[in-house]
Write a structure and sequence with these properties.
41% of the residues lie in helices and 26% in strands. The chain is an alpha+beta fold. The chain has a single domain, classed as Fe-S cluster assembly (FSCA) (GMP Synthetase, Chain A, domain 3, 2-Layer Sandwich). It has a three-stranded mixed beta sheet with strand order 1-2-3. The longest helix has 18 residues.
């Protein structure tokens, strides 16, 4: 796509960009998401605040955070919370 700006850099850098982009929306709901590590094709995050223990946390993780991470780092197979 001409004129598009996609994150470049290492896998971890691209994952960080994706998480930084969704973080404001997660914070608006009283939660937070933090990258802990990238293990091969798996991203491990920590959900905190209102997200910790929330019944919607798995949906937020898969549908919101995971989709953005996979957009910028398609080699990632899944995002899990620790």
């Amino acid at each position: 796509m001409t004129g598009s700006v996609w994150p470049t850099g290492t896998l971890e850098e691209r994952v960080r960009v994706a998480i930084d982009e969704v973080r404001p929306a997660v914070r608006m709901d009283g939660g937070d998401v933090e990258l802990l590590r990238v293990e091969g094709d798996v991203v491990v995050v920590r959900l905190s605040g209102a997200c910790h223990g929330c019944p919607m946390a798995s949906s937020t993780l898969a549908d919101f955070v995971g989709e953005r991470v996979k957009l910028y780092a398609p080699e990632i197979s899944r995002v899990v919370a620790e």
